[in-house]
């Protein structure tokens, strides 16, 4: 397994109404948290800002370019520096193309907290990653109205 300590990870809390879009990670034992549900994320490349990494990862993993992303904050979890973003998607969620992972689905905060996450494709339950549960606890309320958590000058600069 790759040593991930000290990595910068950009991670998206993508909401569909009051639910969260999540990815069932591959079952490869060489990756972190195989076979668990997590939020869409990836590490930054050299000289890449966290917001650039987030947009790149969303394109690579979902073929999606959100019109708007909000920066919610940075936290450290399991020796990783997580740059957490929020974006919302509506009906167009059905047009996303999953390019990494085993499945994707939307779940309520309650389902995530209580490990009730079934894969529609595989018809089995899989748990959320420890990071997903941790981040849900930190950012669940914030992701419902992210503008009020940004300084006034950043409310428009976060748009693109």
UniProtKB/TrEMBL annotation:
SUPFAM superfamilies per record: Nudix
InterPro entries: NUDIX_hydrolase-like_dom_sf, NUDIX_hydrolase_dom
Transmembrane segments: none
Entry-linked Pfam families: NUDIX
Residue intervals of the Nudix hydrolase domain: 4-131
Gene3D superfamilies: Nucleoside Triphosphate Pyrophosphohydrolase (3.90.79.10)
Record's protein name: Nudix hydrolase domain-containing protein
